[in-house]
Each structure stands twice: as structure tokens, then as C-alpha cells.
Amino acid sequence: MNNPFMKAFSVFATGFSVLASRLSMAGAIAAIIFMAGMTLHIIVEILLRYFFSTSTFVLDEFVGYGVAAMTFLALSYTFEHNVLIRVNFILLKIRSALARKMLEISCVMTTLVLCSFIARYFWRSISRNFERGSTSETIAQVPLWIPESLILIGLIIFVIQMLAYVFRLLSGSKLMSEQ
Questions:
Q1: Which part of the chain is the Tripartite ATP-independent periplasmic transporters DctQ component domain (predicted)?
Q2: pLDDT (tens digit, 9 = 90+) per residue, 17-61?
Q3: pTM score, two decimals?
Q4: DSSP letters along 145-177, please?
């Protein structure tokens, strides 16, 4: 790599990938915390029903929020570690390394744009729910912007992780499927 621009870009891509990796790890840790919280809530619910014939009355709602939060917060971590389920049978059939890389970049960029669009939708919904003070129609009356914010955070981390992957590919790294 004699080109100074490519050297600088490679350094930038590496630094950006480190940032993305740390954010992904933070999202995964948050997902684990939500899983532990849901597990504890389920145990409390079982004990309340068995011993006291009562309930928290919010288990299904909170577990639903937790599953959504876990899914989106862990998304970038699974992508980074190449365990996200991907359909890549076309990519595997292409023999040219350059064509494979260009197709991979195109697919990741398409996903990145779609996730950015979804994130924009969530941002608008969060803003609207926050301004209106919208709450769930259950006994807990959870402000709806809270669970939606967790999904938005997960989407943002995922977009950052995909962008880091594209930067790594453009700086000369191998495809995930080749590592």
C-alpha cells in the first residue's frame, strides 16, 4: 500500500471498526442484561402465582419489550461475528474475488440504507410519542418512547457496524464468508 490516501483510509477504517466493535459489545451486554431481567421477572411471576395466587400483571408486556430490545441490541454483534443468518448462495457461486467484494458491498449498503430508513421511522415515532406523552394501554402505562428507543439504539449500532464492514472491505480486508 504505497498510496498515502489508502494508508490513511485503512487507519480510519481500523479505528472506526474498533468503535463499531465496542458499540456492538455494549449492545450485546445490554441484550444479556435484558435476558437476565426477563428471566428474573418470569421467576418472580411463577413464585407470585404459585405461593400467593397473584401476578405482576405486566409480564407479557415487559417480556415483549425485552425480546424486541434484545433482538435489536444484539444484531450488530451477531453481524460482526458472522453468526447472523445470511443468504449468500449467490455470493458463493461468483468466482471473481472483485465481483464478490462488489456484490457484498452492494448488499451491505442496501441493508444499511434500509435500516437507516427504519431508524428514521423509529426516530419520528419516538419523537411523536415523547411529545404526546403516549403510554401503553396496560396497567404499567409504559411511555412508548422507551422501548422504541432501545430498538433505535440497536438499529444505529447495526448501521455503524455495517458501515465499518464496508470501510474494512474498501481498505482491502477479506469478506466475512472468507474469514
A1: 38-170
A2: 999 999 999 999 999 999 999 999 999 999 999 999 999 999 999
A3: 0.93
A4: HHHHHHHHHHHHHHHHHHHHHHHHHHTTPPPGG
